[in-house]
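Hi all, posting the design record for the shared folder.

TITLE: backbone redesign
STEP: 1 of 1
STRUCTURE INPUT:
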């Protein structure tokens, strides 16, 4: 009798795993790809600061449990290929903290996965490929863009890229996606309750990258064209001509980088225009009935500008103090620079230090490692994806 009950319980468990998880619906698959900001720098220690702002405080209920710990998704999984410590790493499991730079950090996949998980009973698989310090012009160069043509300066300096280097990470991305979706066994490594009969559907692609191209004006000049080639090639690669596609727009320094007082030498605004223009041009070339499923989602509104002010005050006054100590700057020059940037006497206040410690965990080009930024932007990407699907 006992053995019969055990067998019956096991049968019910199998039934639960295969039919509650899948519920007879296809596994929805989303591809997330890019460089270090798709990897993600936001440490979980910064999550609590979301509650300091009345406008974002309700978000804590979505990401923290009763004990105050970050939640894990119910029905959403991640297969992630990235680099950690100079080595390739493959990470598998439910959407949770740990798919960022290290086991305590997140990228956009956390807010993205939790929002989709909460919006549907359907199972979700996120396949994320992200490697730091990569360009679209070279590393992710799509096949239809053709060979990379070095700039005059690169030629002068003898800087060339082999066929293996050009497009290497594009091929790595495609290879990992295809390997993950190869068969029932490969999918079940990530989603244990996956049922072959339910199948899967490729539901969307999110691209979040740009810093390395933005720092190279030769790359900026070709970014719009390369992005159009990338979207075209990705859809062709996965035989999905209407695949919803989101270009996550670089938002370091917010939506109006030129208004900032710092890092004026970087052409952030110019680069942002190339990303918006890629979406605009791509959309204009397709048939009217197919328009609207390639969109841009700006990360700029989620950048923490006040936190950035503290970052730059710490960085700039720290450098001036070192110069002052070594005799490379006079006290009068130090005071003049502080006044120019509105830094007062140049000392970090207790309030500024407390804000910095609570809200940040990385540098400005990594969105200051702010959980408030990465979670909200990930959620915005998911909301935009659902809007495309519903339309």
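Okay, here is what came back for every position:
SEQUENCE:
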């Amino acid at each position: 009798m006992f053995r019969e009950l055990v067998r019956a319980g096991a049968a019910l468990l199998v039934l639960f795993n295969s039919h509650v998880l899948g519920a007879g619906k296809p596994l929805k698959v989303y591809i997330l790809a890019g460089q270090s900001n798709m990897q993600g720098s936001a440490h979980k220690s910064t999550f609590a600061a979301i509650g300091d702002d009345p406008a974002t405080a309700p978000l804590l209920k979505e990401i923290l449990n009763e004990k105050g710990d970050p939640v894990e998704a119910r029905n959403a999984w991640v297969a992630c290929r990235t680099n950690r410590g100079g080595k390739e790493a493959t990470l598998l499991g439910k959407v949770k903290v740990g798919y960022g730079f290290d086991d305590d950090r997140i990228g956009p996949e956390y807010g993205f996965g939790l929002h989709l998980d909460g919006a549907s009973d359907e199972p979700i698989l996120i396949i994320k490929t992200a490697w730091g310090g990569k360009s679209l012009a070279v590393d992710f160069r799509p096949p239809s863009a053709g060979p990379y043509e070095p700039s005059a300066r690169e030629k002068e300096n003898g800087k060339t890229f082999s066929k293996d280097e050009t497009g290497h990470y594009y091929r790595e991305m495609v290879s990992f996606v295809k390997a993950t979706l190869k068969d029932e066994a490969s999918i079940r490594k990530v989603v244990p309750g996956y049922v072959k009969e339910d199948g899967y559907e490729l539901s969307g692609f999110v691209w979040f990258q740009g810093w390395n191209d933005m720092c190279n004006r030769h790359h900026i000049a070709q970014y719009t064209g390369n992005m159009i080639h990338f979207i075209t090639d990705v859809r062709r690669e996965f035989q999905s001509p209407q695949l919803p596609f989101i270009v996550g727009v670089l938002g370091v320094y917010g939506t109006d980088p030129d208004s900032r007082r710092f890092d004026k030498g970087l052409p952030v605004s110019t680069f942002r225009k190339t990303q918006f223009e890629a979406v605009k041009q791509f959309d204009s070339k397709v048939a009217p009935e197919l328009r609207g499923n390639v969109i841009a989602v700006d990360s700029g509104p989620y950048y923490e500008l006040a936190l950035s002010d503290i970052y730059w005050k710490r960085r700039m006054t720290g450098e001036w103090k070192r110069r002052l100590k070594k005799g490379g700057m006079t006290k009068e020059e130090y005071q003049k620079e502080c006044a120019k940037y509105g830094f007062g006497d140049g000392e970090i206040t207790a309030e500024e230090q407390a804000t910095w410690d609570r809200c940040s965990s990385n540098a400005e080009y990594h969105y200051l490692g702010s959980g408030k930024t990465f979670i909200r932007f990930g959620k915005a990407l998911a909301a935009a994806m659902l809007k495309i699907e519903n339309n």
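COMMENT: The mean pLDDT is 93.
Let me know if anyone wants the other runs.
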